[in-house]
Amino acid sequence: MSATPILGLLQATDRNGAVVARLDVRHWPVTVGRALTADLVLDDSHVAGEHLRISRTPEGGIKVQVLDSTNGAALGRARHGRDAQFDWPAGEQLTLGRLKLGLRLAEEPVAAEEPLPHFPWRTTGWTLVALAGMLALVLGQSWLTLTEPSQLARQLPGVLGAVALGIAVWGGLWALATKLFTGHLQFWRHVRIACFSSLAVQAVSTLAGLLAFMFSLESLARFEGLLVLLGGAAAIYMHLTVIVPQRRRGLAGLVAGIAVLGLVAMLGTNWLQNKRLSNKLYLSTIYPPALRMAPAVPVPQFLDEAGAIRQRLDERLKDREPDSDTPEDPDAD
Question: d(Cα 215, Cα 197) in Å, to the nearest integer?
Fold first, then answer.
């Protein structure tokens, strides 16, 4: 007597994708739950004793019925409660408690065999480019701050060691979080994100200063810190998508909300301390005059604007002067 043919394969996976339970479907319908009477027994306290009943329709589709369950089941963004019935499209996964449930029917075609991975030349190349760019950025900034260029050779080992340690610690922390949630380290991917995001933030900051000088758009340079904050938020978002790739929209909203709070806090602090939204009074970098595109300011206009600045400064100093009616402390120095 021949064995009953397999009609499908039902398997449950955890959040890391590891298979925790599977069932060779040899009859319809089948039940899923924690009870030993269920066809597929799951070990999850958020799953009912008999949670689902899965059956095959005459047309060949899959019908799911939620049984006596408090948490129900989710298909994509749609959640189905107790006694609900719905169709289960091929290739989709159901969410039961903290587990994912997948179904593969016997008549579904088998995916083509994937070749074994070879050495990732392209990924390695991008990693080397990112590291080289980061080292060049740090060395360039160190060289600009030195009074004697010969000092760079003496400081080179310390600078390279600090950069390597910082990248290793930053990428390692994100890799540990990725290992915890996905089972994979992804260390070099986090290193690439950190390096490329730092280079991008520096490029945007430099471009903002250059455009501010060329076209007299001082606001671009004065609010450079806001650009850096937004760049840091984008980098953190990319790190988080490696850890939880299926929650991109939620992560984007979370990071955007935190970034907005950070912007408000930064602007509010500047206003309370300096009575202005920016903590910069002038451009910190002056480029060659040949790059200047904005028309020259006439001398009378310059004198009027300078006089207005002088008036505001005098008022600021007057507000900070002690009240003349207040007696001075004789013990004060």
Answer: 27
Query: Taking a C-beta distance cutoff of 8 angstroms, is the pair 140, 133 a contact?
Result: no
At 166, the amino acid letter reads G
28's tokens: 């319809």
Burial class (CB in 10 A: 0-12, 13-18, 19+), 244: middle
Task: Find residue 105's DSSP bridge partners.
Answer: 8
| Helices vs. strands in the chain: H and E counts, helices first | 7, 11
Which of 55, 53, 48, 89 shows the shortest CA–CA distance to 70? 48
**What are the DSSP calls for 29-59, one per residue?**
-EEEESSTTSSEE---TTS-SS-EEEEE-TT
**Alpha-helix residue ranges (DSSP H) falling in the chain:** 121-145, 151-182, 187-215, 218-222, 224-243, 248-274, 299-320
What span, in angstroms and rounded, lies between the C-alpha atoms of 82 and 307? 75
Within 10 A of 111 (CB to CB), how many other CB atoms are there?
Answer: 6
Exposed (0-12), middle (13-18) or buried (19+): which is 47, by Cβ within 10 Å? buried
- Among 156-165, 176-185, 269-278, which is the least confidently predicted range? 269-278
| Cross-strand bridge partners of residue 103 | 10
DSSP assigned state of 36: T
Cα of first residue to Cα of last residue in the chain, in angstroms, is: 109
For residues 21 and 44, is the Cβ–Cβ distance under 8 A? no
CA 292, distance to chain mean position in Å, is 37
Cα(24)–Cα(40) distance, rounded to whole angstroms?
9
Tens of pLDDT, residue by residue over 45-99, are 999 999 999 999 999 899 999 999 999 999 988 999 999 999 999 889 999 999 9
Bond prior to 29 in cis (omega within 30° of 0): yes
What is the C-alpha separation between 82 and 64, in angstroms, rounded? 11
Determine the residue type at 312.
R
In the sheet that holds 99-105, the strands lie side by side as: 19-25, 8-13, 99-105, 94-96, 73-75, 78-80
